[in-house]
């Protein structure tokens, strides 16, 4: 049977000591950034920068925003002008209702981030839990859950969100949690599917049988042995879904089923109000919320794709690491006496194997050829 | 008619009660047929992974289960721990019958019955560090009160299996260990609760040559110090010879020979055991493995051969071994391998679609389409070409019946285990009632 | 003596890694004559597979290759990838370990043979293709009636034999077989070894047989090369090497093999080294029971000992050993768990 070929744990792999869990977690987070390269790295880093900027905006919105999100009058009690052009007082101008566009965009970031984080938390929790149970228990539980999830998945995302938002608004009101729950309904099936598939294959693994042989109960097996191993691909989907969720949220707002303007600032709603402005040549009410949506969605998408590229073994391109291979000295070569009579005109120069194209040949020793671009 | 299998007890041992007694154990897996077949009510195929095994495990012994891939070794080992539910039979352990215990109760018994797996890499949860993974059985069975106590016990166990200094290993993940180290960790996890029985399923076959001896030595030491009983599953006869007190040779879900290691290796009785032993390559370059080894490979367990399941490959097979129509097909295939394409082109149309000959019957009827005489002649020619093929001992008559040729086989008998000296062997050669010339 | 089919000189294959180059093969020299089988043995991670692939130019992206692989007057190391691609198949063959993953599951066996023969010998008629394929399959014990079956209809051992047939149908003069029997049972393994043994008689093919099973080497090979940490530390005729191993590593490897005549366990302490920073001097010195003071200091010379070529100071030229170099080496204890 196959021999386990394992690279030796050498001195370079320093043994982890102390608070190993924290160190491991941090390393786990840092790994995609260290391992990525080329386009993948560009996407990952750009995306992360954009997302972090938006997160900071959301967190420090009270400090950044010049006014409240539903403020229509200055501190002095004087109402803002409607449709004021961008200027010193209102750097992005004001809207039809006299809101400060800059402040609404900043507060909108907070809304978007809150809703999306809530929605992600809900859908991750539900999707992962149900996926795990369906995959592990199997039988009718699996069949019923798969059927329900497939039905949810088959509905157009926005339609589903609207229905849920509509139903919930009766009880929960038109705030952030309603929007979050509406979005949750859209994304649960995705996590469910991924986690279920991973569980179905992971439960055939020997370590699961080993856990059974230890006498572990099914719940222990599910949460101690399967959970950590089936959520590997979840970060990628979560990031990509977050991007999608921003759009869904904006879509809900645009159609008027989202967060009510009195509850929070929301880009989709602002965009909808700005539609009629464009005809009148008022561009600032639409441009800035639109730009905010585009930037955040782009950031999340880039980050998700970047993560995917570095973490998905199927499409990952390993970074080629430069090798410096010095030429052999005469003493290191096999003695001529041991070599059959054949002329050997300096043929032992290092050669790079660039996979299929091995054209890059390396004369002499020293540094490497191409393909080693870090 | 299978003779009543004897239980493996000799007078001097019967005084002591066996640790575990396996009687008539069968584990059949249902292969799912197509959805349509199930709708129509047709049964899917069943794989008889373990098909009537009787063994008594003595306390403190090392019992080897040896056989080729697919002979049911792993399935039997898993059944001993209640990891698969037997189709029928009994596994008596103390006062318990593991074969019919509910899962809930089995869980608490598992403390005493443990397993070491073939692939140490797959047997460890990749995201659990060693301290947690090895200490987990203690916590499952509530043998420790605190995390710190578990960690202390893990530390001791790691030292016990040679992963020293233990502190260096406690926080490691499986991926940071080499193959041998992982197997040591798996063994540590298996012994931490103080088991009585350890089923080791090919524990060294995936390890590097130079590590195998180390792990075997560790297992020997642990067996001695902790008073373990081992079931050692392997397809490697050399380690079985070294490691086991008794060996059971398995073939297609049955034990075909079982007895003390020395006797089996010194004087193998079953033709399959003989073949296995002759096939082991020796370190001496002067001694070559013989060429006349049994042909072919282990048959599909979903459709095992009739009679003695080894008969299609057995060089000593004779009349009662269970000849059937499929053997004719195999004979023609061997003939065409020997004679080549021309013979195939000439003879295949005569023999008819070979699928017809594939039937699992003691009689075969080939519609020769008016060329019955030619086909009879061909069969006679084949017999004349290879008169020593054991198949011909099983062919009772070749007769023509209207336009068809009918080949009748002698009735087959299922061989049961028979006591010969200190070993039990399931082969008609050792049955004085059947075997006259051997 | 006949001219070698393939002669490898100072071959080095290094992989890139975060911590520096992995010297998987680091200066290997050997010859293979027509019809000869050379067994390549050693522990896991000593570079056997890398050497086998390096000789055929089948290396992953980014690996670096240096030295000579002389085949029909050409150095394959510097030859263009296209030229090597043309040689692979008709001249150079490879038999892998896992046969199922290498056969296309969607194609009948007949189609796989047709495809192979069409690419490399375009002139063949359909009849010839069928004939040649069936002949090779027959030699491997596959009935001609199964010619049009799909891979999944065969057992593991049969698939491995089909793989071998597929490599041999082009009549290559040099084949690398990387652990071709490791996944198989004893009886099937014996059949395949027998078949590979017949190769040199029937096809005149030279074989580089990579395995970690010394019993198989004794069974199937003419010569053996023992590899440790990227170097061939001893090579010679199997009978000689097995009867009188000259390198301590060969000796220890033979002693630690468990065979039917084993009565006690023996093993080499420690594990093969990290090939990024291999030990200084003789790479075996941290584990060698005969290590001397000179061993970690200087790289051992290759010397001829009888028919064997050995790389060890025990046989090294005395004039190169410094004063007191033959004193035993004092080392730290190796812990049991320090293993591969
Ligand atoms: N879960 C299963 N479902 C269906 N068939 C199975 C299952 N497990 C094993 N089998 C079949 O049962 C037979 C015996 O399998 P088992 O794994 O016990 O063999 P083994 O002797 O351990 O072989 P190996 O040496 O390859 O490990 C085989 O034919 C196998 O295909
Ligand atoms: N693609 C690769 N990239 C980096 N290192 C590799 C690669 N393939 C093998 N190695 C390393 O090269 C060494 C030799 O490996 P290998 O040739 O597979 O040895 P063997 O076949 O003797 O087990 C090992 O240390 C292994 O980890
Ligand atoms: S019963 Fe004995 S002789 Fe007959 S086929 Fe089986 S093993 Fe061979
Ligand atoms: S050179 Fe020294 S260390 Fe190396 S094998 Fe020979 S004696 Fe041992
Ligand atoms: Mg098994
Ligand atoms: Mg290898």
Automatic annotation (TrEMBL), chain A:
Residues 331-374 are annotated as: Disordered. This is ABC transporter permease. Residues 109-304 form the ABC transmembrane type-1 domain. It is found in: Cell membrane. It comes from Phytoactinopolyspora alkaliphila. The chain crosses the membrane at residues 42-65, 112-137, 144-168, 174-192, 234-260, 280-302. One of its GO terms (cellular component) is plasma membrane. PANTHER family: D,D-DIPEPTIDE TRANSPORT SYSTEM PERMEASE PROTEIN DDPC-RELATED (PTHR43386:SF1), OLIGOPEPTIDE TRANSPORT SYSTEM PERMEASE PROTEIN APPC (PTHR43386). Belongs to the binding-protein-dependent transport system permease family. It comes from the Bacteria. Residues 340-361 have a biased composition (Basic and acidic residues).
TrEMBL record, chain C:
It is a peripheral membrane protein. It comes from Phytoactinopolyspora alkaliphila. Keywords: ATP-binding, Cell inner membrane, Cell membrane, Membrane, Nucleotide-binding, Translocase, Transport. GO terms for cellular component: plasma membrane. Belongs to the ABC transporter superfamily. GO terms for molecular function: ATP binding; ATP hydrolysis activity. Residues 8-254 form the ABC transporter domain. This is ABC transporter ATP-binding protein. PANTHER family: ATPASE AAA-TYPE CORE DOMAIN-CONTAINING PROTEIN, OLIGOPEPTIDE TRANSPORT ATP-BINDING PROTEIN APPD. Pfam families: ABC_tran, oligo_HPY. It is found in: Cell membrane. InterPro entries: AAA+_ATPase, ABC_Ni/Peptide_Import, ABC_transporter-like_ATP-bd, ABC_transporter-like_CS, Oligopep_ABC_C, P-loop_NTPase. It comes from the Bacteria. GO terms for biological process: peptide transport. The keyword Flavoprotein does not apply.
